[in-house]
Automatic annotation (TrEMBL):
Single annotated GO MF: beta-lactamase activity
Organismal lineage: Bacteria, Bacillati, Actinomycetota, Actinomycetes, Pseudonocardiales
Any one GO biological process: beta-lactam antibiotic catabolic process
InterPro entries (UniProt xref): Beta-lactam/transpept-like, Beta-lactam_class-A
Taxonomic source organism: Amycolatopsis bartoniae
Protein name: Serine hydrolase
Length: 311
C-alpha cells in the first residue's frame, strides 16, 4: 500500500491500491501504519507464479471429482479460517467457492458477511461502464484504461471512472443488473473502496461475467484479470491469496487491499481452473495493526482450497 506522507483534506478514512481514491479520501500516514504494524511478524514473500496461456469464454466440462459432503465442506471452510487466524488471531473471514461445471457451492463460510471491497470494486466499475454502452467496446484509449485499472489495480483511473460515471450510482446499477442482494454503496460517496460486498454477491458477479457478459466485453475484462501484474500500480505485491496460495492453477483475479478507519482488509477473488470452472472468493479483515500480516495470512487460508480446486 503506497501511502502519502503529507496529510490531505479529508472526509473519510479509506485507503486502497495505488493512490488516494478521491480528494475526499484520507491516506493514512506511513508512521501510523508502521507503528500499528510493528508488533506483527510478517512472513517471507513467496516466489512468483506465472499464469498459463489465456483462455477465452467457455462452459467448463465437469470431471468426475467426488462432491464434498456437508460435513466435509464445513470442515474445509473451518480449515481456511483457522489457517488465516494462525497468523492473524481473530481475523474475520468470509468465503465461497462455486463450481460452475456442476452448479454447486463447494464450500462457504460467512458468505453473507459484509466487507469493504477495497479495489475489488474496480471489477464492478468496469462491468457498469461496458453495460451502459450496451456491451460495445469503447475506444482504444478507454479499453487501455480499463485494462490497467484491473490488471495493475490503478486507483487514479478508478477514481476518474467513479467521478465521471456517477459515483455511487455505479453500485446501484450493478446491484440491479446482476441481482446482487447485499452489495451497497459506500457511506461517503467518494470512498469507492468502502463499497460493501459479500462473498456470495461476488460469486454472483463472477458468474455473471463468465456466463452472461457478451464475448467481446467478457474477453476485455477477463484478459485484464488474467494478466494481473505481480506488482500493483502502487508497488504492492498483489499475488497474495489465489496466485500464491493455489500455484499451478489458471486464474483471472481481482484483488483488494487497504484500510478503512482502524480496520485492514485483504481480499482475493477470481475465476480459477480450466475454463474458469471455479469462482473463488476469500475476504478478510482485522485490526489495522495486522495490516502487514494479513496478506500472507490470506494466502495461507486460500492454500487450503487446493484439494478441491483443480488446475
Amino acid at each position: 500500500m503506497k501511502r502519502a506522507a503529507a496529510a490531505r483534506a479529508v472526509l473519510g478514512a479509506v485507503a486502497v491500491g495505488a493512490a488516494v481514491m478521491l480528494v475526499v479520501s484520507v491516506v493514512h500516514d506511513p508512521a501510523q501504519v508502521a507503528a500499528a504494524s510493528a508488533q506483527v511478524t510478517t512472513a517471507e514473500p513467496t516466489t512468483e507464479t506465472t499464469a498459463p496461456a489465456l483462455k477465452t469464454q467457455s462452459t467448463p466440462t465437469p470431471t468426475p471429482t467426488p462432491a464434498l459432503s456437508p460435513a466435509e465442506s464445513a470442515a474445509l471452510a473451518e480449515r481456511v479460517q483457522q489457517a488465516v487466524r494462525r497468523s492473524v488471531p481473530g481475523a474475520k473471514v468470509g468465503l465461497e467457492v462455486f463450481d460452475r461445471a456442476t452448479g454447486t457451492t463447494v464450500t462457504s463460510l460467512n458468505a453473507d458477511a459484509t466487507f469493504s471491497s477495497m479495489s475489488v470494486v474496480k471489477l464492478l466499475i468496469a462491468i457498469d461502464l461496458l453495460a451502459r454502452n450496451d456491451w460495445a467496446l469503447p475506444d482504444t484509449a478507454t479499453r487501455n484504461r480499463i485494462t490497467r485499472m484491473l490488471s495493475a489495480s490503478d486507483d487514479a483511473i478508478a477514481s476518474s471512472f467513479w467521478v465521471g460515471d456517477g459515483g455511487s450510482a455505479i453500485i446501484t446499477r450493478d446491484v440491479e443488473l446482476m441481482g446482487l442482494t447485499s452489495t451497497s454503496s459506500p457511506a461517503t460517496a467518494g470512498e469507492w473502496g468502502d463499497t460493501k460486498v459479500t462473498a456470495a454477491d461476488l460469486v454472483t458477479v463472477y458468474r455473471y461475467l463468465a456466463d452472461d457478459v457478451p464475448a467481446a466485453a467478457h474477453d476485455l475484462i477477463y484478459d485484464a484479470l488474467y494478466h494481473a501484474s505481480r506488482d500493483g500500480a502502487d508497488g504492492t505485491d498483489q499475488y497474495f491469496g489465489i496466485p500464491d496460495g493455489l500455484p499451478g492453477t489458471t486464474w483471472a483475479i481481482k484483488q483488494g487491499w487497504g484500510s478503512s478507519g482502524s480496520t485492514a482488509y485483504y481480499n482475493t477473488t477470481g475465476l480459477v481452473g480450466q475454463d474458469s470452472r471455479y469462482v473463488v472468493v476469500v475476504l478478510t479483515s482485522a485490526p489495522l495493526g495486522y495490516y502487514r500480516a494479513l496478506g500472507r495470512a490470506l494466502t495461507n487460508g486460500t492454500a487450503q482450497l487446493a484439494s478441491v480446486v483443480s488446475p
